[in-house]
Amino acid sequence: MTADRPLKPIEILMVEDNPGDVRLTREALKSGKVRNQLHVVSDGVAALDFVYHRPPYEDKPRPDLILLDLNLPKKDGREVLATLKSDPVLKVIPVVVLTTSQAEEDVLRAYHLNANSFVTKPVDLHQFNRIVQSIEEFWLTVVTLPP
Q1: How far is CA 4 from the centre of its chain?
Q2: pLDDT digits (tens, 9 = 90+) for 70-116
Q3: With contact defined as beta carbons under 8 Å apart, do 62 and 11 qualify?
């Protein structure tokens, strides 16, 4: 974290259609070390509306980090990732694919689309919490995010 950002919360956009996973992620981030603001949208169209500040997200901040599920309604995560990483302004936002898929083709495709990391969601509650805290530890305390 840079010296000018310690008081500002890290803005995280979670693109997830499973309310249970959203709840677990929210709880894991609340108990974390870094002050953050979690924004949640449940489909790929809303994700792009959020990052492009289209209605109803005109006043939302640009995310510092995106947690992206692959299997989403309206527009899947692969399409969202391709759009984000092809945009010269948005491509610097780190995107962590957080999905239930373990398929090798999904992993390869996500990295070919320039995902910053690929994490498979565990089914165990304790493991899920540990994974989210690991994401937070790495992306919000170890790595310097783009301004």
Answers
A1: 23
A2: 999 999 999 999 999 999 999 999 999 998 888 899 999 999 999 99
A3: yes
Sign of CA dihedral 139, 115, 92, 75: negative
Residue 9 vs residues 45, 61, 67: alpha-carbon distances, Å: 25, 11, 16
For residues 84 and 93, is the Cβ–Cβ distance under 8 A?
yes
> What value does the mean pLDDT of the chain take?
89
Give the per-residue pLDDT at 3: 45
- Which domains, ranges and CATH numbers included, belong to the chain? 10-142 (3.40.50.2300)
For residue 10, count other CB atoms closer than 10 A to its CB.
21
Structural tokens at position 27: 């709880």
Count how many Cα atoms sit within 13 Å of the Cα of residue 136 in the half-sphere of its side chain: 25
Residue 14 has pLDDT above 50, yes or no: yes
Reduce the secondary structure of 48-87 to three states and give it as a string.
Answer: HHHHCCCCCCCCCCCCCEEEECCCCCCCCHHHHHHHHHHC
